[in-house]
Amino acid sequence: MSNPPVSKESSVSSDFSDIVQHKNKRNAFKNGAAAILYASNGKAIPVSASPNEPANGSDQEMPLLMYQTWFDAIEKDDLESAKRILTGVRTEVDIMLNGKFEFHYFTNSSKNKIWKQKNKTLPCFFQRPVVLAAVFRSKEVLKFILNQGADIYLNDGGDNNIIHAIVWGAALQPEYENEYKKIYRMITDSLSRQEQKSLLMRENADGLRPLELAARLTTFYLFIAIFNTEGVYVHNKGRLGAYVCKWYDVTDYESIDSKSRRNRSPLRIFTFIEKERLQNASTREIMLNNKAISKWIDIKIQSNTLHLIFWFLARVSYTMLFLVYANSNYEESDSRSAMRSVSTLSSSSIMLNMLELTDLKIDNLTDVAILHVAYVIIVPILLVNFLIALMSNSVSEVAENRYLIMALQRLNAALQVESRFGMHISVLYKSIQDKLLVTAEGRVYVECFALKEDEQ
């Protein structure tokens, strides 16, 4: 197995160099159901099955009351205590490495059952030692237990693997997102390309891969770190002066294959970002400055421009036809009908009445006129507020916020139109793929040029 590429953070990568050496000595049993990791002393320690197989691992539970010192060592990143505890046991090594902590242990079995059932609704429940070490940012203990044969492919609560758990940790503690990004790189640098892909392509109980979960939880720095994983999502294709040519693999989201993940595309998830999150500097930095994401969004919008125009005209035509129909078919007195035939306000009133919008208290033309006057008054006020904001010291920030919101609104409109016109029509996706790179093997890529610093 070839060693993975070395990251810029050599101090981080060197931490896991011994793991790479141990992983090169891994062999499989004859039945292929398990593997052996040979430690430096030649002792065989059972670890996971093939990384391509679903990993559920040991369901052996460790009551916190009995394993409190082991849990504390993981939480506090106490390497010496972890070594002493693990070397002091003989028969429970595999349980302590790959089991699950039972955090609430009751002597009454019925209480245990009730507690387990209640906590199934938690979004992500961290129980396995290797996952807890990653979530607690305990780098030394994480390195140690992986060296001892902890199964990195085991799923935790909600079928989240260790990468899902890191994303959840960054979402729950956003102030430490850069630390979680370093831990992610520590883990992936110790794995082969195939093993990285096995972790990153695995879905949790919600059907989300780590990249999609990062988009959903708006952990953007970690999202970019995952999206820049070489050999999985990104492929370097040479240099052009000071720039690096990169191909980002978006085949799963932009193909017409029946197994396509179009509905779980990060772009589609981005359209549901809350406005409060859009005002964060990290969001603007990722969405506006990251060349791969911004180009992907632009391609999506440009490919649907004609469809957007057609859809807009169709909606306007439908509205006008509805008004004409309402104007000619609503039963009222002759005098009022004569007035309606030349009145846009009356047509609007009729349409609202036909739609039974009685809660708006719109029963006559006067009410409609009042609404029009209110609209005419409110719009200038909003425009004045916008101009005041532009003239303030935060002009660049306001402009970025406005631009980002408008970009996501256009993206949302493009995706909506794409759905309306049929997601399975090959012509639609051909217009998108014409602006992307499609290889002979059918892989679809976003091509962009970036400085080397953009990789980080």
UniProtKB/TrEMBL annotation:
<protein>
    <submittedName>
        <fullName>DgyrCDS13692</fullName>
    </submittedName>
</protein>
<feature type="transmembrane region" description="Helical">
    <location>
        <begin position="308"/>
        <end position="326"/>
    </location>
</feature>
<dbReference type="GO" id="GO:0005886">
    <property type="term" value="C:plasma membrane"/>
</dbReference>
<keyword id="KW-0812">Transmembrane</keyword>
<feature type="transmembrane region" description="Helical">
    <location>
        <begin position="369"/>
        <end position="392"/>
    </location>
</feature>
<dbReference type="GO" id="GO:0098703">
    <property type="term" value="P:calcium ion import across plasma membrane"/>
</dbReference>
<dbReference type="InterPro" id="IPR036770">
    <property type="entry name" value="Ankyrin_rpt-contain_sf"/>
</dbReference>
<keyword id="KW-0677">Repeat</keyword>
<dbReference type="InterPro" id="IPR024862">
    <property type="entry name" value="TRPV"/>
</dbReference>
<dbReference type="GO" id="GO:0005262">
    <property type="term" value="F:calcium channel activity"/>
</dbReference>
<keyword id="KW-1133">Transmembrane helix</keyword>
<keyword id="KW-0472">Membrane</keyword>
